[in-house]
């Protein structure tokens, strides 16, 4: 069990590092295009900026999808990744990214039906029939 948990943790860290490498490659390109836009302001540059922005957003979507897939196997690292420094984890929490925030979001999206469904689910687990 410990080995499996360690493998998931390594996969999550690898996923994060891959995304950070992509970001470090995209940032200089973005800065260069922004500097060119300020000096030239041509339409071709705007198209390149849109394309690059699309790539960056796509990179983030891929990262989020991989991270969500890995979170199904081990969710604790989703809230406080072990590869972050204690300061980074503290900033995540101070910034409002807490597990309770996710629960509140799910509750808000699902509405009050969540309580009814959870109660019915728990009754079914306990062997009681829901009426």
From TrEMBL:
<dbReference type="InterPro" id="IPR025422">
    <property type="entry name" value="TGA_domain"/>
</dbReference>
<dbReference type="Pfam" id="PF14144">
    <property type="entry name" value="DOG1"/>
</dbReference>
<feature type="domain" description="DOG1">
    <location>
        <begin position="9"/>
        <end position="131"/>
    </location>
</feature>
<dbReference type="GO" id="GO:0006351">
    <property type="term" value="P:DNA-templated transcription"/>
</dbReference>
<protein>
    <submittedName>
        <fullName>DOG1</fullName>
    </submittedName>
</protein>
<dbReference type="InterPro" id="IPR051886">
    <property type="entry name" value="Seed_Dev/Stress_Resp_Reg"/>
</dbReference>
<dbReference type="GO" id="GO:0043565">
    <property type="term" value="F:sequence-specific DNA binding"/>
</dbReference>
């Amino acid at each position: 069990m410990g080995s499996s948990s360690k493998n998931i943790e390594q996969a999550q860290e690898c996923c994060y590092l891959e995304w950070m490498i992509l970001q470090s490659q995209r940032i200089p390109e973005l800065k260069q295009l922004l500097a060119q836009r300020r000096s030239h302001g041509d339409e071709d540059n705007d198209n390149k900026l849109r394309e690059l922005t699309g790539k960056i957003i796509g990179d983030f979507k891929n990262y989020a999808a991989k991270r969500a897939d890995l979170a199904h196997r081990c969710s604790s690292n989703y809230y406080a990744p072990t590869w972050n420094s204690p300061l980074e984890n503290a900033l995540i929490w101070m910034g409002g990214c807490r597990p309770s925030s996710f629960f509140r979001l799910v509750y808000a999206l699902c509405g009050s039906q969540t309580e009814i469904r959870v109660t019915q689910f728990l009754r079914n687990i306990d062997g009681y029939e829901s009426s």
